[in-house]
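Hi there, hope your week has been kind to you so far. Do you reckon you could talk me through the fold, stretch by stretch? I've dropped the whole record in just underneath, so have a look:
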Amino acid sequence: MKPVLICGGIGKKMWPLSRKRLPKHFLPLFKGKSLYQINYEVLLKKFKPGEIYIQTTAEQAKTALEQAPRIPKKNCFIEPELRDTGPAMGFMAAKLFTIAPDEPFTLVQADVLREPAAAYLKMLNQCELLIKRKGKLITGGIRPDFPMMGVDYLKTEKKSKTIAGMRIFRIANYIDRDIGSKKIERLFKQKLILIHANHNSWTPRLLLEAFQKFAPDWHQSLKKIINVLGTSKEKKVVKEEYAKMKKDRIERITRFAFRRGYVIEVPFQWFDFGTWESFFRYKAEKQEYDAGENFLEIDAKDCFVKKENKKFVALLGTKDLFVVDTGDGLLICDKNYDGRVGEVVEYLRRKNKQEYL
């Protein structure tokens, strides 16, 4: 199996700390290590450095290789531009197809934690075995505690198999996050849904065949890219063809490919750091939250601060606030609005305030 570390976004919901030059997955927020470094070190427990791949952007490639110094430079796939997850996954499949077309791969999000890591590696063993035996798209799912909105789900068949302590379901259907609360609530009561946790695993050939079937326009460009990889025409053709691929999510394809595929109910805790709220909640639960020196709270409740230690910060009579200070940027946010921090980044883009991006 070939693990592919995926990193390319800027984590705009964690502005002002997460920036283009150093997005959230590269920030040393976890005992001096980044999420990317932690995931890289976990993979080294199972894979040799030459078996691990990276997919990122030109802007982030240098940092990605610096923080994972044992991965060969040739194993770093650089997307020509940002065109969302559909073209990105197609590009990855094209690159892997020229290396090992029928060897399973797994996508490894670089901005999440999986604890304990040993259980995650154990799951990868089952993914590889299932792909080799069934030839189907395999992914991971999380059993929801309540009918959560704003996430994608996988509807499962009722029966499951337990292998190596893990429950494995056939997937009946992919359920988009916009389907509506009533249907989600009904399926939740029937215990037929898992939150899609983005651990997609397959083979390059089978993924490209799915592109051909469900997104032939994308596939046309990917065929041309594959034909020039390793030649003098590669740079020019890849740039031209990738630019032709419509921006869209990989779910344009996987929503169909998931049907009759398999989902493993993940045997570990999955922490997705998409917002400041998720970061601070994790730190508090692990008893690792520390506002640092020069900080005072008076009658403040459920507030979190991330700042430079030299600056003195006082909170009086406040509740449910996140305060993040980087020196050149200051965020003061009610925790109920943390999902809208990305709007600040969009405003800065419109105003061409590049120094804050």
Notes: The chain has two domains: 2-272, 277-340. The chain has a mean pLDDT of 93.
